Amino acid sequence: MKMKTYRIRKPKIVVIGGGTGLPVILKSLRNQSADITAVVTVADDGGSSGELRDSVDMAPPGDLRNVLASLSDMPKLYEDLFQYRFHEDDKFLANHTIGNLLIAALSEMRNSTYEAIQLLSMMLHVDGHIYPSSETPLVLHADFDDGTSAIGESKIALDRKTIEKVYVTEKNGEKAVHAARKVVSAIHEADMVVLGPGSLFTSILPNLVIEELGEAVRTTDAEVVYICNIMTQKGETEHFSDADHIRVLHKHLDSKFIDTVLVNTEKVPEGYMDPEIYDEYLVQVTHDFNGLREEGCRVVSTDFLKLRDGGVFHDGDKVVDELFRIVFGAKI
Fold first, then answer.
1. Half-sphere exposure of 11 (CA within 13 A, CB side)
2. Which structural domains are found in the chain, ordered by start?
3. What is the pTM of this model?
4. Residue 215 has pLDDT above 50, yes or no
């Protein structure tokens, strides 16, 4: 068999998602030899991001800010300043971060959040590419199994109903069709596309249900990997197994497009999680390996667990080691 020259270049890895899980993986990827592209959700409507999104008419900056910080080589003092959040009693600056305000200012100056992120990427010496999934802010909708619906990412989990499907629209109500520039080409040129970790219905699917983006993930020749969440999430994935996550993804794109799923099998110590801080997470995701195989997935199950500050996280280094084993194995 003829050996490819693949190992002499960086593998092209596209990571799609949002929330707190994405930066963990990106930071570890940055420490390895990878050509990274991060595609970040723009459907957040809560907190500082939601306020700035409404007042400046921009894509929500919070997830983009965290991704910028994770891929930048800026000194710790600069990162602390970029991530600094004003106190609740600071009147009109309450709860805003410096980074969010910088993204808002550049978005207004250039009339484009996409351009703002490209400029900040250069300013902060970002190693990789960061693109919002859409160049316009999107509205997330959820239809529940009881026939009711909710509008807005921050509203979806409140009533703890079973979600039937989610979809995104432009702010004018039109269907979200177009991905941000370079996103589709990055997915098609990738060696691997990684989904997650992150909230299934509010961080991962809001990207995939953008018509162009979902079609690109469904049809790419890249290895598509899903990093399954460790814990179930209140109002989103209560009582879910790992196979349930995959079934939902496949149902939304009407295709069995996930090639490999990474599943944590290490137990979280009983009573470890601090419910005051991590009140949205419930119990560990259960395992259904037969269900995963029925969905056509290769399963990698091992210890991906990292316990920190009363919370449960993926160990980024362990995950990235596995991603590199997969991407090199798939291309030889």
1. 25
2. 8-41+133-330 (3.40.50.10680), 45-127 (no CATH)
3. 0.92
4. yes
